[in-house]
Design goal:
about 350 residues; mainly beta; 12-stranded mixed sheet
Length: about 350
């Protein structure tokens, strides 16, 4: 039996929708031999296919093809080859098209058709491909000639997922999918008053492995991004004193140590101060108990401390006592002196009577 490689013309009978992938139509089996379609040609309403294949001469096979079919070329761009999309013709699944691939679909040319692919194709985590125009309308042909060509390319654009988390503000509302290269503004409050004496202060945006210190910043999405706003808690320390200049009031990070201080002593006001009277620091009261004027405070909650004072009038009292003594002694001395002078100037009573 002689096996030859010859060119044979075959006319095929096809189902309602035929979908072939790649630039050539898939392999079929004829007489247990693998026969491959080569590109088609259309003429006179009949589609012709040419085959190359080994044959047992003089055997040959003839298949009839519907004269109402026309080949349509459908391509997909923008999707990596490891992913694929489903093609539907008139709401019926036709075939699957790999990214960057092309299929050939046989449809009835006497009626209109709608070709549809998936709007979204999922990629790796946080990545997807979006086809904005995922539907194509093919009008019916008035006549079929050799020049009739129908083709459409569905183009996908890559999108990335932005996930935003923040305990405050509206930053989470911008979470979602964005086209590659999109510029997005992240914004969250710098300071949030939680309650009296307690607040949250912005530290940074954490973006994957990078840190951004500004609470408002722009980022460009060239991959999926997880953005988290980091805050730390602060407590307010109120340092009070009726006298002097106390220091240490302000906001402190949770767990930090605050230093408070006030003068050890101050001069009293008025005459007492003029005479050396003093106000002496007598310890801290409130949320801190300490006898020293310079103390450390651990900030684990809002705190209020007040300086206590006592008056020291020992010196003025001494001065006043001495002054009083001097005055008394001086007064006595003056009195005695004046009394003696008066006694000397007054004559005795006898001499007066004799005269």
């Amino acid at each position: 039996m002689l096996t030859r490689r010859i060119l044979i013309l075959i006319i095929l009978v096809a189902p309602s929708v035929l979908c072939y992938s790649s630039s050539t139509i898939p392999v079929v089996n004829a007489a247990e031999q693998r026969i491959q379609f080569l590109p088609y040609a259309a003429e006179g309403g009949v589609t012709y296919y040419y085959f190359w294949g080994p044959w047992d001469w003089p055997h040959y096979y003839t298949y009839y093809y519907s004269p109402h079919k026309v080949p349509v070329t459908i391509s997909v761009e923008g999707v990596p080859s490891q992913y694929s999309t489903t093609l539907k013709v008139d709401d019926s699944s036709a075939c699957t098209i790999p990214g960057g691939g092309t299929v050939y679909v046989e449809v009835n040319w006497r009626v209109a058709h709608i070709f549809t692919v998936q709007s979204y194709v999922e990629g790796i985590e946080g990545e997807r491909f979006h086809c904005p125009a995922n539907s194509w309308y093919l009008e019916r042909f008035s006549a079929l000639t050799r020049e009739v060509k129908a083709a459409n390319t569905f183009t996908y654009n890559v999108e990335y997922l932005l996930s935003v988390s923040s305990p405050y503000g509206d930053a989470t509302k911008i979470s979602g999918w964005y086209p590659k290269g999109s510029s997005v503004t992240l914004s969250t409050p710098n300071i949030v008053e939680v309650s009296t004496g307690i607040r949250e202060v912005f530290d940074s945006w954490t973006l994957d492995r990078s840190l951004i210190k500004n609470s408002t910043t722009d980022i460009v999405l060239n991959s999926s991004v997880e953005a988290k706003a980091e805050y730390h808690k602060e407590y307010y320390l109120q340092v009070r004193s009726d006298y002097g200049t106390p220091s240490g009031s302000g906001w402190y990070k949770e767990g930090s140590i605050a230093n408070i201080e006030v003068e050890k002593e101050l001069p009293s006001e008025g005459l007492m101060g003029f005479l050396g009277g003093k106000r002496i620091f007598d310890g801290w009261s409130g949320d801190v108990a300490s006898r020293v004027n310079a103390a450390d405070v651990k900030m684990d909650s809002p705190k209020t401390v007040s300086a206590k004072w006592r008056e020291d009038y020992s010196r003025p009292h001494t001065i006043l006592a001495l002054t009083a003594i001097i005055i008394v002694v001086t007064s006595i001395a003056i009195y005695r002196s004046s009394t003696a002078i008066i006694s000397k100037r007054t004559p005795p009573p006898e001499e007066s009577s004799r005269t």
